[in-house]
Amino acid sequence: MRATGTRAAAGLIGAAVLLLTACGGGSDSQDGPVELRFSWWGNEQRAQATERAIAAFEAAHPGITVTGEYADFNAYFDRIATSVAANDAPDVITMGGAYPREYGDRGALLDLAEVSQYLDLGKLDEAATSNGRFDGVQYGVPTGVNSYGVVVNPAVFEAAGVSLPDDTTWTWADFERIAAQISAAAPEGTYGAEDPTSADALDLYSRQSNEGLYTPDGKLAISAATVTTWWEMTSRMRNAGATPPATLTVELGGQPAPEQTLMGRGLSGMRLDWSNRLAAMRTASGAPLVMMRAPSESAGRQPGMWLQASQLYTISSRTEHPEEAAQLVDFLVNDPAAGREILTDRGIPANPEVRDAISGAFNENQKVEAEFIDRISEQVGPPLVVGPVGSTDTRSILERIGSDVLFDRATPADAAARFVDEVTAAIS
Amino acid sequence: MTEPDRSAPPGGALSLASPPTAPAPAAEAPPAARRRRGRRSQRAVRDGRVAYLFLAPWIVGMVVVTIWPIAASLYLSFTDYSLLRAPRWVGLDNFAEMLGDERLVSALGVTFTYVVVSVPLQLALALALAMLLDRGVRGLPFYRSVYYLPSLLAGSVSIAILWRQMFGTDGLFNDFLALFGVQGIGWVSHPDFALGTLVVLNVWTFGAPMVIFLAGLRQIPVMYYEAATVDGAGRWARFRHITIPLLTPIIFFNLVLQTIGAFQTFTQAFVVSGGTGGPSDATLFYTLYLYERGFGSFDMGYASALAWLLLVIVAALTGLNFLLAKRWVFYGD
């Protein structure tokens, strides 16, 4: 017994010593290199460019190392939700749309005013910067500026013997007609257009009739009648073969990367998408894709298109290194060295100085995108109303009810009523 | 602890390492051991402590990763908890919300359909193959391993991705149909067929119950069959009146296990539907809906309530299974 007691004491002391050393080790590392985690969504191409930008940052800031984490768009926000809930959020988190409000209002994001001495927002485009500001609190920093429009493949038009539309005058009826013409003349497996239904498309379409998805005070703005007209159009297009059959559309919905879209594979004539994805789709398809204004921009009550922050860099409120995280974000948006790597992949840089510094490095793909943004910047409608808390559910609600329309399980009118009900419930 | 252990030589609990020398009960222990009874009880206490010390990793694991989360989820099921803010007590609101939740109804529908269709199919296939292998196939260990392999793999993400490709528009399955001039569709993307592909995936994992059936078949004495054959029983009669009755405990075991497993299906449905339960909620498994509410809509309180409802459903069905078992399971006594 005696011997055991002594041994136990020795063991306890040993354990205590180990613990103490461990604590010592912990406090030492405060002075060592700071490790940051930075997350984004996107494809391999974006990851490579971002890793190069990170390397440039690390070279400029010895003592800070950055680990990149990325996933494709569909999986990304699931992952962020779980890691934030587990108190294991990355230090710098890429977000978009209403997500900063969703997380910021719940206390997960840092108010960037707290780190303003490390992060200069003064040179960034004000409209884009305002997309990261919610009720006066700046949670996000715009990565760049983009716009939702129509990506067009002239090669598919030419092969089908259809002439390109004039995007200053065309309407949704033209869009529908042209898509059907292309599908009819194109080889099997090539479609005039991809199914255009998305939350952004509905936003754009309803803004043309002065609605939009949400009101500034966080209510639903779009009417069931507008959603009905939209789904009547997409159903006609699907029935006419202008867009792919329902199963293919659903399948494509699960593959968001630009190179997996029909447009990225050279198999469709038109696709509604974001301008910052144009370069990736041009690279993937090898075709001289161009960007056009959405249909009916001049025919509606107001233009539906808008310029916005394509993505927003945010900082976790639980980061142990807010200053270093702010330095990283500052580098990404304000330093031409980062701009030269990322180019227009996250939108046209919101800092004009960066944009001018890197425009010489633009290749054909980025030039086309930059020219498009330049061209439309005078013609877009009012700034977008970003959705309230709960509005990040809209995408999945639309996908679910939209597939009922695709498979004729619900009439456009019934589906529209359900959509309005469910989104209203989600945001209230 | 059993008697022989207590009379084991000094070294106490560690005697597990050395085989017990004398399996004699305490009554037959040598007198010397009996004289040390007082000290022995002291040692028994110490042995108990040592036992708990060895059990500690398991107990800590059990409390930290099982009991604590279960208790926490019970508490959370009575709260409004958005993951990022502190939970707020709402009483029975979450359970009241379930009553009017249409998606919960469709999730229950999908899950029950899946269980009712895939479990019997899987068990039937498992039993059929077990009987085939039991007839003395050459290279039995090889076949047994090959058929068991899917059970090890099927829960994995890679198999689910493979499945999605196989039953996609340009998938292997449609290539196969094309041989017969049939033009297939994207099976996993069609609301009428998506669940079917997952049923096929589950049936494909017949290996685990098959191995258990095989062991059960080996337990049936050959003389029963011989006697029945002498009495003129045909192949069907022998199956119906010997194999099935003697196998009922095994069938019951597999049924309970596979039913519970099927209720908990998540990975396959999550991957095949891209995390949405789509198209049109056709693959919205209960667990997937629970996940979506918890991590998609940040309704962790409601998701916890859903988890408890699932527990009650599975427990009730398992209880029912045991109750019914009295009528058909034959334990040979």
TrEMBL record, chain A:
Recorded superkingdom: Bacteria
InterPro entries per the UniProt record, alphabetical: Bact_solute-bd_prot1, SBP
Pfam families attached to this UniProt entry: SBP_bac_8 (PF13416)
SUPFAM superfamilies recorded: Periplasmic binding protein-like II (SSF53850)
Designated name of the protein: Carbohydrate ABC transporter substrate-binding protein
Organism phylogeny: Bacteria, Bacillati, Actinomycetota, Actinomycetes, Pseudonocardiales
